[in-house]
Amino acid sequence: MNVFDVTRLCHSPPPMPAADTAVALYRTMRRIRTFEDKVYQYFQEGRIGGTVHQYQGQEAVAAGVCAHLLASDYITSTHRPHGHAAAKGIPLRAMAAELFGSALGCCRGYGGSMHMGSAEHGIPPASAIVAGGVPIAVGIGLSCQMLRRGSLVACFFGDGAFNNGAFHEGANMCAIWSLPVVLVCENNFYGASTHVTLVNKIPCLAERAAGYGMPTDTVDGNDVFAVYAAAAEATQRARSGEGPSFLECLTYRRCGHSRRDQNKYRDKEEQEFWMARDPLELARSRLVGDGVTTPQELDAIAEAAKAEVQEALDYGEQAPRPEGPEALRHQFWEEPQ
Amino acid sequence: MTIAKALRVAIAEEMRRDPTVICIGEDIGIPGGWGGAFTVTWGLEREFGLERIRNTPISEAGLIGAAIGAALTGLRPIADFQYADFMFCAADQLINQAPKICFMSGGRMKVPLVVRAPVGASGRGAQHAQCPEAWIMHTPGWKVAVPSTPYDAKGLLKSAVRDDNPVFIFEHKLLYGSAGARREDNAVQVDEPVPDEDFLVPLGSGAIRRAGQHITILATHLMLYRSLQAAEELAREGIELEVLDPRTLVPFDYGLLCQSLGRTGRLMVVEEDTRRGGWGGEIVAEIAEKHPDLLKAPPVRVATYDVPIAASPRMESFAVPDASRIASAARRMLGA
Q: N or C end of chain A, less CB within 10 A?
């Protein structure tokens, strides 16, 4: 498979979900895109510090998978967690406050961009060590299986994680114990600047994952309806006790790997091909073309997202920052007062 | 009761008390197997079943990550390594994940995790011999227990299971009292009666194992017993060592150590880890910095030489402190 072969996956369009679901998928993607674009602007202006690994271009994956998750389900995430966090339900203002290092952030300023998490939304602090979240998802799957049958965990990771031992140890454990885990591989073709074909003899990652003895699928990760349909099967299997699945979503960063990365290592033709396949535009033309909704309704969603994001960033920017000595707290668990 | 049995009893009591406690590790829960490398979990699957005594592939990163994820979401796992040396295969989970999750969440998520690992040179060569307590002690977010008696093994393990934070328990191969096919050559017999009732040894409380007025010896595990042996020898020469067992390295019972130094004015740390960067240096530095007034003489470290451990018995014995090396260091310290 080469990076253009994604078109072979789309010979028949995936089914269109019910109208309200389809529109909700678009709304989730739009909220993420608008948030990320605005965060990028604030970062360039020096209003947000540290580093950011952004999600523009991959929104269909988080939206399509998380649409199947309940509040009682879990996800694990990566150094690129903003999209997953928003799709699983962390309010944008708690995320924005975290980016500003505020005490009102979802991790009170202790986590930052790469460790977004929230206990009440079933998200442990995202692991910024590539593949580090995979074994943790195994354990969450174990407690779902032993304590809360019917719950599941969606484990997000990138193509880079696929060549790390932690992924393979975790994938095997998911399979042998038949755990309710959906392994969601966001194959955006680059581990930082390294192309997937440089570091994989068999670049179809789903083909290799199948060796663990679990159902696998490769979908167009820029088509939210394709992701939604594939994730429906995978989450259903997990919920009904039929074990893990591996879902490879072919997608592409519309942003750099991090901060000010200009993507100079990317092939021009490849980049043009994928930039022309914006998941939001693809969804919009399908939604309008199938008569599910109107351009006006989608524009209204975009306007609402813009207002929500601006409100969230204003909130975050003005929210109080913790004092220095607060750095000494929370190494160990303190019972809530 | 041996230490292996005391640990097994403690695990069983905690599993009966709390249905969310599970064991996860390599070669556990195998009918006809060993119960882990040193028999600690032997037979527990008969009472608790294979779901709760969960055998894993040889996947250290996988099993520790799984224990962390389970701890985050309602279980209280006791994970074990067959040998402490294997923990480095799980370094990301042990260093970057487990001890940082509560912190990175801003104190909103807890990780009630216990990890057990056998330490100590035992004729197996360089990769089955290390005492890596300092690696974990160095990492904020861990508590570290180092039981050296059956009573403490039971009480500390139960405290660890009930703690809402990651607790690492280092155990010594030659102190387990493992029997049968898992018997260790050169083992030290440390059998003692252990009360049947539910009792805890709190994390952060040391114990004086022998009272004396000349030197405070701080030692754990096998070095504790070798220090006691040296103390016997020196007592015949009129030198009285006070032997202190810290029982946990994090938190560390500085109060008890300072009381003891108030009596002796001399500190010697005896450890089986290699000397450079070992846990003993940290204790010495802390006392030198904060309580120099308590010291009549410069502190002394007796530790394994800074080399990997050789397999051949005489070389192994040479590298690791024994009673005579401890006694010589004590005599030198007193100018005797």
A: C
Q: Which residues contact B29 (CB under 8 A, 6 or more apart)?
A: B23, B41, B44, B45, B50, B53, B54, B55
Q: Is the ipTM of this complex over 0.90?
A: yes
What class is the B3-182 domain? alpha beta
Q: Which of B56, B68, B105 sits opposite A173 (nearest CB)?
A: B56
Looking at chain B, which residues constitute the CATH 3.40.50.920 domain(s)? 207-333
- B101 and A125 in contact by Cβ < 8 A? yes
| Residue ranges of chain B that CATH labels 3.40.50.970 | 3-182
Cβ(B7)–Cβ(B36) below 8 Å: no
Chain B contact present for A329, CB below 8 A: yes
A208-228 per-position pLDDT tens digit: 999 999 999 999 999 999 999
Q: Which domains does chain A have, with CATH numbers?
A: 15-254+268-313 (3.40.50.970)
CB contact under 8 A, B70 and A142: yes
pLDDT digits (tens, 9 = 90+) for A229-287: 999 999 999 999 999 999 999 999 999 999 889 999 999 999 999 999 999 999 999 99
Provide the chain B residues 54-113 that lie in CB contact (below 8 A) with chain A: 54, 56-57, 59-75, 77, 92-93, 96-97, 99-111
